[in-house]
What we know:
Layout: E1 2-19, E2 22-35, E3 41-46, E4 50-53, E5 58-67, E6 77-85, E7 95-103, E8 118-130
Antiparallel strand pairs: 1-2, 1-8, 2-3, 3-4, 4-5, 5-6, 6-7, 7-8
Amino acid sequence: MEVLRLEGKGSQVFRCESQPAGLRWTYRLPEAELRDTKGQLVMRHGVNLSFEHVDGSRLVGEIVDHVPSPSGESLPWLLLKARGFGEGALEGISYVQRINTVGGMPPSSCEPGQLNQVLRVPFSAEFVFFR
Length: 131
């Protein structure tokens, strides 16, 4: 059952790293604020696909499914299985969907002069929370 739907805006953080196929932007973490329809901050989305509500309750998500965004140039849409911590609004949430993504994808490769540099790519998405 859907219990909460929020608009997320922020950045996807990548780091230029050497990989067998060459230098690539490697995903590190999201940094986003999730707001309600009135623009009020409800939670922050961060490291380890975590969500922290303003009431202190938290979730950590694990990707269980994904599909490419319809545009093909934005972040994939995700289904996360959630593990909750603390009492509050996020208590009992079992899944989170990230849909309607815009942006968030890095360039396909980075240059030698960018090695170990961090890149923040703006994105927005809708986050849907289910019990």
